[in-house]
Every structure is written in structure tokens, then in C-alpha cells.
């Protein structure tokens, strides 16, 4: 767990995915990250346009891009 300060559940979900991607950096295997956040799945994989959390979303996308084979599923 990690203290994120004051924020939303969306920030928590995105940060969790970011931390998972960071922890798995350098892995060369298929990775399946599961989340119950339709928001996170939408902004990361379905092209949803986010009005908030844009810097965090960019960081998550960059971390995921560094993994050779990653899926985010509901």
C-alpha cells in the first residue's frame, strides 16, 4: 500500500497500475493486469479522452509501453 494523499478512486486505480508496471519492468513474459476500473481501462486502452489525471495517465501509458506483452482486463 502507499499513501497517495487526497485524491479520487481513479487516481488510486491508475497509480496501482503504474506501480505494477514499474515493478514488472524488464520482464519478458506475458502480463495480465486485472482491474475493476472501467475508467482506467477506457483511458489506457480504449482511447477515452480524460479531462483530469492527464499527467498520471501519460506516465502509466509510458510504463505499460515498456512491457513487451501486457493486457489490462476487467
Keywords:
74 residues; mainly alpha; 2 strands
Describe the 3D structure.
With 74 residues, this protein is mainly α. It is built from 3 helices and 2 strands, in the order H-E-H-H-E. A two-stranded parallel sheet has the order 1-2. Helix 1 (9-23) runs parallel beside helix 3 (54-65). The longest helix is centred in the first third of the chain and has 15 residues, at 9-23. The radius of gyration is 12 Å and the shape is globular.
The helix/strand class is mainly alpha
User: What portion of residues belong to β-strands?
Assistant: 5-15%
Strand order of the largest sheet: 1-2
Tell me roughly what share of residues is in helical segments: 40-55%
What's the overall average pLDDT, rounded? 95
Amino acid at each position: 500500500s502507499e499513501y497517495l494523499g487526497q485524491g479520487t478512486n481513479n487516481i488510486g486505480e491508475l497509480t496501482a497500475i503504474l506501480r505494477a508496471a514499474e515493478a514488472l519492468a524488464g520482464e519478458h513474459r506475458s502480463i495480465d493486469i486485472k482491474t475493476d476500473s472501467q475508467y482506467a481501462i477506457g483511458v489506457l486502452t480504449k482511447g477515452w479522452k480524460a479531462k483530469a489525471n492527464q499527467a498520471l495517465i501519460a506516465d502509466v501509458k509510458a510504463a505499460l509501453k515498456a512491457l513487451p506483452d501486457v493486457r489490462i482486463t476487467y
